[in-house]
Write a structure and sequence with these properties.
9-stranded mixed beta sheet; D-Maltodextrin-Binding Protein, domain 2; binds zinc ion; 3 domains; 4-stranded antiparallel beta sheet; Alpha-Beta Plaits; binds phosphoribosyl ATP
């Protein structure tokens, strides 16, 4: 028999203080959730939804969600995969982007993955690192598990090489290390518990997901407005990679119209140049707060 969870508020685990904290809070605020001062408390009530945030270390999030202590969690895919947590990944979120990579001293003997045979690798990700070597069929690699400052392990002669998270590559460079291969691509994920949830909580999760989708589409789109001669409208319409047919409104000047539409941000400059060539003037681009398609 399915047992429904007893707490009524949807409980969401987020990182208390770290790289993911501000972006997760701003995503939640961006989809309309309002919180009081989340920096002072570990459990923060949402003012306008039946939601509460539990602020904990990122390493604890997969387990809290797996065990049903929290219904949802925002956490790096690296942490979820390393913990082999039994949770459902609802979606990836494009922040906290990084990769787990293998790196070795710049002028050392390790140049290719094969050179790792018989070597010692320091990492905070023993599961993902071991899996990598197993998949590659490279045997006899010993893993030294460290909880932080992995990049100095070769200099301290604790290990021959490392596997660590990399985003800009600056830390590797500063420590005389070169990246040799990528083990795992990561970004923040929204994960849900596999424990049964009440209908009310599930409905709230569905609503949040729809809003996140709208928020993401809005962030990747721009509202574009321009004036143009009416005769240029068919040509302009063909150029616009708009979601739907653009809005065309007459202007006070005879034969002139205003054209409004929404376009993907990455097409803006290319489209704008073509629009100008087609006769459009006064082209204005505006950010969009949110949108439901
Ligand atoms: O206290 P708590 O345990 O919650 O935090 P934490 O210190 O364990 O984690 P935190 O805040 O450092 O990282 C949280 C999550 O951010 C990670 O689990 C990843 O999903 C993601 N993330 C994204 C990163 C990085 N980028 C990153 N660059 N996490 C860590 N790093 C570190 C990396 O370990 C290395 O020391 O940054 C350094 C490399 O950065 P670059 O830019 O020099 O390459
Ligand atoms: Zn951590």
């Amino acid at each position: 028999m399915r047992t429904l969870d007893s707490s009524t508020s949807l409980r969401i685990a987020i990182q208390k203080s770290g790289r993911l904290t501000d972006k997760t809070i701003s995503l939640l605020e961006g989809i309309g959730l309002k919180f009081d001062d989340y920096k002072r408390s570990l459990l923060v009530k949402c003012r306008n939804f039946d939601v509460e945030l539990l602020l904990i270390r990122d390493d604890d999030i997969p387990e809290y969600v797996q065990d049903g202590v929290c219904d949802l969690g925002f956490v790096g895919a690296n942490t979820v995969a390393e913990d082999q947590a039994n949770v459902t990944i609802l979606r990836g979120l494009d922040y906290g982007v990084c990769r787990l990579a293998l790196a070795a001293p710049k002028n050392g003997s390790i140049k290719t993955t094969e050179d790792f045979t018989g070597k010692k690798i320091a990492t905070s990700y023993p599961v993902l690192t071991r899996n990598y070597f197993e998949t590659k069929g490279i045997k006899n690699v010993s893993i030294v598990t460290l909880s932080g400052s992995v990049e100095i392990a070769p200099r301290l002669q604790i290990a021959d090489a490392i596997s660590d998270l990399v985003s800009t590559g600056g830390t590797l460079k500063a420590n005389g290390l070169v990246e040799l291969d990528k083990i795992f691509d990561s970004e923040t994920q929204l994960v849900q518990t596999n424990k049964p949830l009440s209908e009310g909580k599930q409905a709230l999760i569905d609503k949040m997901l729809q809003r996140i989708e709208g928020h993401k589409t809005a962030a990747e789109s721009r509202y574009i407005m321009m004036n143009a001669p009416e005769t240029a409208v068919p040509k302009i319409k063909d150029m616009l990679p708009s979601m739907k047919s653009p809005t065309v409104m007459p202007l006070a000047d005879n034969g002139m119209v205003a054209v409004h539409t929404v376009i993907p941000i990455d097409t803006f400059w290319e489209v704008m140049e073509k629009l100008k060539a087609a006769g459009a003037t006064d082209i204005v681009m505006l950010p969009i707060e949110s949108m439901i398609v």
